[in-house]
Amino acid sequence: MSLPKGAYQVLEDVLGPENISDDPAITTAYSYMWLLYITHAQSGKYRPAAVVLPSSTEEVQAIIRIANRYGFNYIPVGSNLLPPTIPVRPDTIIIDPKRMNRILEIDEKNMYAVVEPYVSYAQLQAETHKIGLTITTPEAGSQVSVVANNMFQGMGGMAHKFGYNRGILGVDWILPNGDLLKIGSRGVPNGGWFWGDCAGLNLKGLVRADTGHCGGLGMVTTMAVKLFPYPGPRIFPCEGANPNFVAKFPEDRFKIFLIDFPTKRKVCDAMYDIGHCEIGAAVHAEGANWMLASDCASVEEFWERWPDFQKKWKNILAVTIAGFSSPRQVEYEEKVLMEIIKEHGGKLVDEELYKVGYNAMGEAFRTGLSNRLYRPAGDFFVMGGFGFDSLDHTLKSSEIFWPIIEDAYKRGLFVEDTTKSDWINSYQMGHFSEVEPIVYFEHDLKAGEAFLLGYIKTITDALAKKMHPSWPLGAMNYITGPAMCNYHELVLGLKKLLDPRMTSNPGYPLPETNPFAPPPEQEK
Amino acid sequence: MTGLEKYRWDLVNCERCSMCKWVHPWKTQSHRFAKVCPSVSKYLFDAYSAQGRFDVIRGLLEGEIEVTDKVLEVIYACTLCGGCDVTCKFSRDMEPLEILHQIRIELVKSGKGPLPGHKAALDSIKNYDNPWMQPRTRRSNWARKLKAKDLTKEKAKILYYAGCTYSYNPDLQIVAQNTLSLLLKSGLDIGVLGNKEICCASPVLKVGEEDLYHDFAKKNIQTFNELGVDMVITSCSGCFGIFTNHYPEIGKMNFEVVQGVQLLEKLINEGKINFRKKVPMTVTWHDPCHMGRGGEPQNIWNGTRTKWGLSDPPRKRNFGANGVYDAPRNILNAIPGIKLAEMERIREYSWCCGAGGGVKSAFPEFANWSARERIEEAKSTGAEALVTACPWCELNLGEGVKADGDKIKMLSLINIVTEALGE
């Protein structure tokens, strides 16, 4: 857990002594990840060799060049939420961007903002709302990094209306060899930040991909992101005190409808029609466990209400309507929605359930409740199912993962969920979708193993049915790749091309060798 | 570190959401004032946040790391303001603030804590019953000109507990004097303990000296109970916070604890205080941590975590929203001429002045930095004065105001009240 001789001093010369540390008291705080512990049993095994705090693109560039010269690994992080940010091999440093926290520009006329990696969504939105603009915020919470999240998925409540992962415009990107690459309109002299595409080869897909490269292809130091119209209050309309908040938007411009459908099929059919009619700002089928968790101030409250709630919340769709152009838009969309509800046999939920789901509207515009997702137990994650495909595909995915989940909760390893309700997101007016079945489990290796094996099974089962499988992150690409034109070989080729020394978060976008491959003697 | 075992569930289940670093997203109003934790905002490395400290403490428990000077710095460079506790608890059932207290207790037990910078105040409390190295015989000097009952000799319904800083600091004694004077004029049956008053021991607990804290807390509870008073009033938010949020687990308290501003508000509402003079000024209110989120009545819980992290017996948690927030605002709004301009980080999301948790004595530069941050926020409201009701906040923010060239005034609420009374 130490850097090659002399490397620390060189880094310190670049950054200043206060902006680098290899002290275990500091590095330990970057070594542990709850989910990694149970699934990989690796957490805490490797403390980073150092943590560095650059303040500029130039300093990031210098760090990466030093890493190449001395041959150590580095992981660029954002707000540091997900497993790829934890070192799983020695001689790794963390590039923590907390000093790169500026909103460099908000261009009201051209509707974009230019941000550094430690600007959170809540910070950016707080400023853009003042001028009637917004950005969709992810379910990971508005406290996460705008840059890192856009590189990961850039999804969020408003992706039905604003599009999925289409917000990246001009980007300044330090490649793994230390070169500064400017893409989008940044790649054209005096091109500015306003455009995500440009003449010639567009490498935006490499920044973002399906789930991003997780720091495996260098570090983005500045990004322009697209902004969208926002007809809401200039200060987020949050009422109440911790832990009971209600987001109350003006009713002439904002409405939420919670609709109970007889089946999941009907939910999806309604979602299709909502998309066809091009109405709705945020459209989600809401999973029961998450919805109740978002309304509970404690784990005890969740467990007190959960048995009864399971009987009430099954196939419920939340549709948020916003009057972007005028209040008449709300009136029109409401009329259309009512017709769709009627056609598919839905009915508006009663007052009790409406109260539980009401905050989904606030959540659509600025995620603030989503970390309550963790509330029902120690650990949670999504049990596969992340097929970014059609709404029909989500239904098929659901058939794959629920038997696996049911088996685990019957063995007492997961929290029981008899609702079989999924969190289904409509993106880009229902043109595509994804589904996330959220499961809760204890912080122990047995539950972790059940989760990990179950997760892999959802992928292999999906592949066997020629479906688009779940979230291929890191090594998982070795399972999905062979079934999908061996795309993983292309990704690995790109990794080797851009990062020949394999120093940029080495396990991502996928590791150099396949960890699932049988050992050589077995192969024989 | 056995005292930390009961927090293992919290330590291993923190999912690094980072909420502990920020004001709740729905309450965030700007890029500039979006953060809630002074420590990680100043030192930047994650180790200085609740999440990072959880990792450090877990590392200590697991034997992955040892207590070093740097570990001590990471643990003690925190004002224990509780901002992380409020934001964390919105979504998780964890106890960051309790854990940050407990690790200090464990460090002291193992002979590693507190820090050398804390020694002078601790020795002073041991030797003189106050952290300011002042003799006991001068404690009551502030009240010499007031005709309050001496409760060591006679009975009264209310004890006015001035606290060490308001008793000894010549610049701040006026706060205790104005408060007591006003309460006396309102006809309340109120008295003081004079030189028999001793430190509340908040500074002792905050650096982890649990045994010494217990001695003082027990002594105070016994004394107050024996006085037979119905109510203990204090103007010091540090004392108020420790009385309401920590003393209840020490022993039964047969009296109500009230912050001075709460009683003032009551007297205004009852028409017993009438403002005669206009005070034309725009002010902003700073919520002291120990009067706000740290001033909530304590929910005592002795239990264990069971499956899924449930508490047994079910635990009632402190969310920080039930502190004293409305009273000072209502008072300011009742004063003719005063216009209250709120900062962005208020109530349970208030930014700490920087003086708490032993930071002022061990990390003065950090304390000053935190104060400067708050002053910038106060100035952004356009207010002419920053008002509060805590001696620690007033001293630390006051220093910051001076260093900033006195661009805003630093005032005690009671002094504005006194001015508005026209006396």
What does this structure look like?
The complex is a heterodimer of chains A (524) and B (423). In chain A, a hairpin with a 4-residue loop joins strand 5 and strand 6. Chain A folds into four domains: 89 residues, Uridine Diphospho-n-acetylenolpyruvylglucosamine Reductase, domain 2 (2-Layer Sandwich); 127 residues, Uridine Diphospho-n-acetylenolpyruvylglucosamine Reductase, domain 3; 223 residues, Vanillyl-alcohol Oxidase, Chain A, domain 3; 48 residues, no CATH class. With 524 residues, chain A is an alpha+beta fold. In chain A, the strands form six sheets. In chain A, strands 17-14-16-15-19-20 form a six-stranded antiparallel beta sheet, with helices on both faces. In chain A, strands 5-6-10-8-9 form a five-stranded antiparallel beta sheet. A four-stranded mixed beta sheet of chain A has the order 1-2-4-3, with helices on one face. Chain A is 35% helix and 17% strand. Helices cover 43% and strands 9% of the residues of chain B. In chain B, strands 1-3-2-4-5 form a five-stranded parallel beta sheet, sandwiched between helices. Chain B has a four-stranded parallel beta sheet with strand order 9-6-10-11, sandwiched between helices. In chain B, helix 3 packs across helix 6, helix 13 crosses helix 14 and helix 16 packs across helix 17. Chain B: It comes from Candidatus Schekmanbacteria bacterium GWA2_38_11.
In short:
Chain B: This is (Fe-S)-binding protein. Chain B: Residues 159-242, 325-397 form the Cysteine-rich domain. The complex is a heterodimer of chains A (524) and B (423). Chain A has helices at residues 7-15, 24-27, 34-40, 57-70, 121-129, 146-152, 159-162, 204-208, 264-276, 288-294, 299-312, 327-343, 351-357, 360-365, 391-410, 445-464, 477-480, 487-498, 520-523; strands at residues 20-21, 50-52, 73-76, 92-95, 103-107, 112-115, 133-134, 168-174, 180-183, 219-226, 228-229, 238-241, 244-247, 254-260, 282-285, 316-322, 347-348, 379-382, 423-427, 432-436, 438-441.
